[in-house]
C-alpha cells in the first residue's frame, strides 16, 4: 500500500507539476503510508516561493500536496479525521430587498445584502460556527451546506422538513459544522425555491491539492439569472406544464452585462504572466447546465466537488447544478485580455443570452478594452466529465447484487383546483415534507409511521454498503439529465447510461470509481450509486434542478436511525427552532406552501 501510493504519486503527479525534467520537491513515504514531501530543492520554471527545505512538509506554492505532519493529499478523509483546528465564526442574515444585478433591478432575497453572499473560509479540520438570522418578513429559511459530510451531525444539515423546522422570521439558528473535507462548495437555502431568489454563497476549505499553483483566486459562482422572482416562476412551472422557463441572462461571480450590453459589468480576474492560478468554479444554477472555457488557456482540473482527483488538462468544464470543479490556470500567454465563457449546454438547456455570458481574464499590463479573443467550440452533451479520485478506494463488488435496491423515477400530471400539477415521482411518490414535523422529530418520537410522501428509505447496518439504481421511465417527455445530489455522503458512481439498465454488473466500476456529491442521471437513463452506512442521519437525495425538487423529485435515506440520537447530542436548538416555527406558521402568514418544501 505504502509503495503503491508512493509510486503513484511520483509517477502521476509530479510530472504534471514540474514538467518532464525536474521534480520540484523530494518525496518520501511516512510511517503510516501517508505521503510526505519536502520543500522545493530544484528551480522549476514557475518557481515563485522561497525554496527553504522544510522537514514538516508545509503547504506552499511548490508543495500543494502537503498539509501538515501526517496529513497530505494522500490522506483518505473519509477514513481519517484531521486534528481539530480553530473555530471560525460567521453571522449571516437573510434579507429581502431590491437590487440591480447585471443591469436589471428586481426583488431578491440575499445573504448579508450581497450577491453571492459572503464566502465562508476555513482550514481543513476547523469548525464553522454560523449564526443564521432570518430577517425576512414573510418566509421561513433553512441553510444547507452543500456537500459537507456532517459526520454524526445531521441536525446541522439545514434541510427543512428533514433535519430541522425552518427558521421563523426574526429568529436565529446556530449551525456548528466540522470541516472533515477540503475544497470548494456553496451554501444555499433549502426552503422551497428560495435559493433562486439569491440566498446563496460560496465556501472555501483550504487543504492540500493535486497540482501546484501560486495564487488562489477563490470561488467563481456561475448561475442562470431570471428577471422574474423564483417563487413566481416556480408556481408557473408547477401548474402550467413541463417546459422550464428560459433564463434571461447568466451571472459569473454575481455580475454580467445586460444582454443589450448597455448596463452591468463583466467580472474581471486579474493575473500576472508567469504565475499559476487556482480558480474554484461552482455551478449555483436553478436550471442551467453550463460549459466553461477560457480563450487561449487550458485548465488543469484538480478536484470534482470535494474530492481531489488525478489532475488532467481540459479545454472546457461541464458543470451541472450543484457541481464544482477546481482548476489551475497557467498565465503563460501574451499579456492581454481573454474571455472566460460560461455557455449554456444547449444539449439540455437554454438561455435568452446564449453564448454571451462572459467574464474577463486580464493580464497585468493589458489595456482596459474588452477582449477580442475567439473561443473554441466546446462539446455539448450535458454529461459528467470523467474523473479519477486521487485517493483510490474500492467498492466491495461481492456485496453488490444482493444489496442493490431499485428506485424508479417517473413523471406525472394530475388535475388540482389550481390547474394541472406537474410532479416527479420516486417509486411512485413525489416528496412533500412537513416543515413543522421534520423526519428528525419522528426519530425523537420513535415513530416509524412515515407518510408515503416523505419518501423514506431506511439504510441499515453499520458500515454495510447500500447500492441504489435510479431508473427513469422511458416515457419521460422532458428527457433532460438530472443532477442527483446526496446529503451526508460522497457517493460512489458505479455506472450510468441511457435507456434501461440490462442488469449486467460486469460493466460497472468497482475499483476507484468517481465519488462526489452530485452526479448526472442521464435523461431516460439510469444511475447506479453506492455508499457505506458510516453516518447516521436523515439524508436527502434529490435532483438539484430547483424546479424538479420543488415538484417532488427527492427521497430521504434514514440511515441507522437507532444511532442518530446518540450522535447528534443536545436537541434544545432543534426543539426551540420548531417551537418558534410552529408559532409563526400556525399564525397569520401571507403565503402557503405550494411545492415539496425543498
Ligand atoms: C419582501 O418584500 C416585499 C415588499 O415589501 C413583500 O411583498 C414580500 O412579501 C417580502 N418577502 C419576504 C419573503 O419577506
Ligand atoms: C415566500 O415569499 C415570497 C415573496 O417574497 C412568496 O412569493 C412566497 O409564496 C413565500 N413562500 C412561502 C412558503 O412563504
Ligand atoms: C468575485 O467577486 C468578489 C467581489 O467583487 C471579488 O472580491 C473576487 O475577487 C471575485 N472572484 C474572482 C475569482 O474573480
Ligand atoms: C449548471 O447546471 C445546470 C443544470 O444542470 C446546467 O444546465 C448549466 O449548464 C450548468 N452551468 C455551468 C456553468 O456549467
Ligand atoms: C490546450 O490543449 C489543446 C488540446 O490538447 C492543445 O492543442 C493546445 O495547444 C493547448 N493550449 C495551450 C495554451 O496549452
Ligand atoms: C398521477 O396523475 C393521475 C391523473 O393523471 C392521478 O390520478 C394520480 O393520483 C397521480 N399520481 C400521483 C402519485 O400523484
Ligand atoms: C420501489 O418500487 C419497486 C416496484 O414496486 C419495488 O420493487 C422496490 O423494492 C421499491 N424500492 C424500494 C427501495 O423500496
Ligand atoms: C399512521 O399515519 C396515518 C396518517 O399518515 C394515520 O392515519 C394512522 O393512524 C397512523 N398509524 C398509526 C399506527 O399511528
Ligand atoms: Cu443540496
UniProtKB/TrEMBL annotation:
For this protein, what is the EC number?
Answer: 1.10.3.2
Which residue spans adopt a coiled-coil conformation according to this UniProt entry?
A: none
Query: What GO biological process terms are annotated to this protein in UniProt?
Result: lignin catabolic process
Catalytic activity reads: 4 hydroquinone + O2 = 4 benzosemiquinone + 2 H2O
Q: Which PANTHER family match?
A: LACCASE, MULTI-COPPER OXIDASE
Give the GO molecular function terms. Answer: copper ion binding; hydroquinone:oxygen oxidoreductase activity
Q: What is this protein called?
A: laccase
Respond yes or no to whether keyword Repeat is given for this record: yes
Family statement: Belongs to the multicopper oxidase family.
Which Pfam families is this protein grouped with?
Cu-oxidase, Cu-oxidase_2, Cu-oxidase_3
Known cofactor(s)? Cu cation
Gene3D superfamilies reported for this sequence: Cupredoxins - blue copper proteins (2.60.40.420)
Which of UniProt's keywords are assigned here?
Copper, Glycoprotein, Lignin degradation, Metal-binding, Oxidoreductase, Repeat, Signal
Has the keyword Hydrolase been applied to this entry? Answer: no
